[in-house]
From TrEMBL:
Pfam families: NmrA. Keywords: NADP, Oxidoreductase. InterPro entries: NAD(P)-bd_dom_sf, NmrA-like, NmrA/Isoflavone_reductase-like. Coiled coil: none annotated. Residues 3-242 form the NmrA-like domain. It comes from the Eukaryota. This is NmrA-like domain-containing protein. The keyword ATP-binding does not apply. The keyword NADP applies. GO terms for molecular function: oxidoreductase activity.
């Protein structure tokens, strides 16, 4: 049986992962859920136990990680690299050899292909530091994820939506890119823990639910919301040039979704249209679950 700790109980991915882990046959309960401050809605039961821990004091992770086999980190990268890496200090104290593997907080763009490396440097360095400790570290990349009422539903800036039913389509409107439903991400993580031998797990796991083009996405959006969008277009070359100039003048956190959008515009490069070789590792021949189709994402 595998004891799992999830760092970041407020993440969009927390509930889908917990839901999938509850169905797993080899997960030991309770799942350990870590939050900075336990709120009224975070009630421990026989399936999930909440712990308080913070990157401000890495020793607060020790009680959670002691006796844990697999760590899933869902925390966003901190501006301060030392805080983002603080969990690694706790892992060292508890003992690297005590863990089966560690899933750092990647979950998105394939970092090695993303055109704006300074924006993902901390994430890349974090995984490298973890591996240098001798810790089996698995970067999970799933491109854009979709959660109803959230990303790629009501939050669309990272796909060029400008508000007021206006959208800038950057790059080829018909070029496919990868999208993942949050439930499929949860099921993939659960399958990785439940069904895949540690020795055969690669350092990088690339998964997705389906592929869609910007044109297809916004055609479906118009039908779903009964609206007509005003579409303007920008070539991939022009999009990259403008974004590079903007970044060179200084990064603003509010612009992060814009840079992701420009990454999509560079497809099939850019980190959002990668081959999903990890799909056959966590779900060979759809043995464990059916990958969701984009047409059914919003049901």
């Amino acid at each position: 049986m595998t004891t799992v700790a999830i760092i970041g109980a407020h993440s969009v991915l927390f509930e889908p992962i917990v839901k999938a882990l509850k169905q797993a046959s080899n997960v030991k309960f309770p799942i350990r859920a870590v939050t900075r401050k336990i709120g009224p809605s975070e009630v421990s039961d026989d399936k999930v136990k909440y712990y308080e821990a913070t990157a401000d004091d890495d020793k607060t992770y020790d009680p959670v990680l002691t006796g844990t086999d697999v760590i899933i980190n869902l925390t966003p990268p901190s501006v301060e690299e030392s805080k983002y890496n603080s969990i690694l200090k706790s892992i060292e104290r508890v003992g690297v050899k005590n863990f089966k593997f560690y899933i750092p907080s990647q979950f998105g763009v394939e970092l090695s292909e993303f055109p704006f490396r300074p924006l993902v440097y901390i994430k890349q360095q974090h995984s490298e530091k973890a591996r240098k400790l001798g810790l089996k570290t698995v970067d999970v990349f799933n491109s854009y994820f979709v959660n109803k009422g959230g990303f790629l539903d009501t939050i669309l800036a990272h796909l060029g939506y400008q508000g007021d039913n206006k959208v800038i389509i950057r790059g080829d409107p018909d070029q496919l890119f990868n999208v993942s439903h949050v439930d499929d991400i949860g099921l993939s993580i659960a399958s990785l823990i439940d069904n895949v031998d540690k020795a055969s797990i690669p350092d990088t796991l690339r998964i997705y639910s389906d592929r869609v083009s910007q044109k297809e996405f916004y055609d479906a959006y118009e039908k779903r919301h009964n609206v007509k969008l005003e579409r303007s277009y920008e070539s991939k070359e022009e999009a990259l040039r403008k974004a590079t100039e903007k970044l060179n003048s200084g990064f603003k956190p509010a612009d992060f979704l814009y840079y992701l959008n420009v990454g999509v515009s560079q497809s099939p490069e850019g980190g959002f249209a990668f081959k999903g070789d990890g799909r056959d590792i966590v779900n060979p021949g759809e043995k464990y679950f059916k990958w969701r189709k984009f047409a059914n994402f919003y049901d």
